[in-house]
Structure formats: structure tokens, C-alpha cells
Amino acid sequence: MPAASPGLPAELAEETRFYLRPVGLGTGGQGRRLAGGPLVFADCEVIWRRAGTVERRIASIEEIETWAADLDGVWHDVVASRLALLSAPRERPDGSTLERPLLMGVINATPDSFSDGGEHLDHETAISHGARLAAEGADILDIGGESARPGAAPVDPATEMRRVLPVLAGLAGLEAVTLSVDTRHSEVMAAALAAGATMINDITALTGDPASLPVAAQSGARVVLMHMQGEPMTMNLAPRYGDAALDVFDYLEARVTACLEAGIPRERIVVDPGIGFGKKGAHNLAILRSLSLYQGLGCPVLLGVSRKGLTGDQDRARPPRHRLAGSLATALHALNQGVQILRVHDVAETRQALDVWRGITGLKS
User: Is 33 annotated as catalytic?
Assistant: First the structure.
């Protein structure tokens, strides 16, 4: 049996789950660039779990590579693949290199969304709102016709299409803005793509409708795969995890694999850990602390924390519109963890915070 690198196991059992989480991220010093972006890392938290136990060690990239060289062929390839995916550059929705974080503006064409339900149910109001978000700096506009807030009842596809299709048509002429449809129904996806959308944002990660994966694969659209435990009506009653951050990673990895097998290339996939979707406060915070972990999936990471109550009863007691400071604090944390897309209601304020962050990090325009 080969000798293990300090603190790392000499071998890994077949059923082991293995992860790398970049740590010590910054904009200077030696190391690898995270996802081809401005952040650099020289160390990782090496995580492996088996039979309900989780072990973690901090090691340098050099130590990890030396350790991997002593492992058998399969595990050597797994470690090498994880490192390669952490460093691989990501793409923008238009196929160009993603060199700066993007903002996705929210347009809820619904009567019951948690923050702004009913405000943009009227088509003209929603179109005007979308144009304003684009002028404020949104790179992507995400139009949804079904609320997914905790406790929300499902909406039939016909109602959803009546809400979103006129909005998509009204925004289709905007330049340099990607239009996304927020839906879990294949019928709505197909109609929205025909109306000008080029991105599908699905809270069920293309599992909620058996036809959604083929529709997405054949469309050529970018797809956002989000993690959700349960259904919106009941998802936050009693969610359970062994390890929230790792369980979410495992689910998203399985969905990325399913998309690859269906013919959707990794370049068209975005992953979202789904803050608040089947997750209580401790689960959300554990995931937020581990955001760099999801770069190991080799896809852009999208985060939606805008106006959500994250830190306890006092935070949740504030009306959603009074949570901007917390939303910005979380957004800046996410940027420092390499998140590439922020889904937000308050585009102008987030754009200002993002521009300041870019100035501090020296990131290109």
C-alpha cells in the first residue's frame, strides 16, 4: 500500500464520495485561477465521506496532486478531473468567456411571489419593469409565471403561458440582454423559447416534467439546474440532510450528468444550490459557507438570495423589501467565493456593489 500524503487517506473505498472545496481565495499570489475568473486558490479542503462519516483536511494543490499520484487509476482520475473542473473557464450565455459576474434581474409575472407578488402581473407593467432592470445593468432577465415561494400552490401551464409569453415578446427587442424563462413545465419552456427566451431556469433541475429534459436538449438553450428538496407547497416544513452542502453537490452533479448524457454540453449548464428551497436557516448558511465547492461541477454557479430571510427569526420578521442590506452582504460573500451569476430583485443597488467589488479586485469591465 502506498504511503499517503500527510493527513490524506492512503486509499479510498469504491463507495466513497470525494470533493474539493477551494479555500483561501484571493486576487493575488500564486495558485490556480478559479473557473478562469479573478480569484486564485492554492489550497483546497479535501473532503471524503462514506457510510455517514465525513472527513476533511486542508492541503495545497501540490500536496493533492502528489497524493493523487499514489492513488489507484480510478481515484487518480477523479481527483485530476475535480481539479481541472475547478480551473476551467466558464462561458457567458452568448458563448463568450465569462470574465465578470453577471446579474439576473427578476420579473415575477405572478400574483403571489414572496417579495413583489402582483406588482408585475400586468403585461405592460412587467415589460416596463424588465426594460428598467436592463437599463440598470441586468445581463439576464428571468421571467416567471408561477410562484415558488414556500407554501405556494402549483399553476397550470396554460395560466403560466398567459402570464409570461406577452412579457417575453415585449422584451425580445432588448439588446445585449439574455431572456430566461423561470418554469418547470416543458410546454411553457417550448413556447417561451419560441417567443425569444434563450435560457431555461428550472427549480426542479429538469425533473419536474418528463418532457423537459428532451425539450432543453433539443433547444440549444442554456439551462439552470436548481436544487430543491420537495415541492414548494411543503418543502420547508421539515427538510432533512446528512450534510446540506455535500448533499446538494451530489444532487447537482447527478443532474449535470443526466444533462450531459441527454446531449446538453457542460458549456450550456448553470447550477444553483437553491437557497431557501427545502432548506431551513442552518442548511442555507452551511451551503453559503461552502459556495466554492460547487465550482467543482465545472459550470457557472448562480445564486438567488435576494430579499430572503437567512439568519433567523429577526431577519425573517423584516418585510422582504427591507432586506436589501443582507442581500448585498450575501452577494459580496458569493462573489468572493467565485459565484458567477447573482439573481436579484434590486439590480441598480447590486450593480453598484458589484462595480465597487470589481474595482477592489481589479476585475476587467
Answer: no
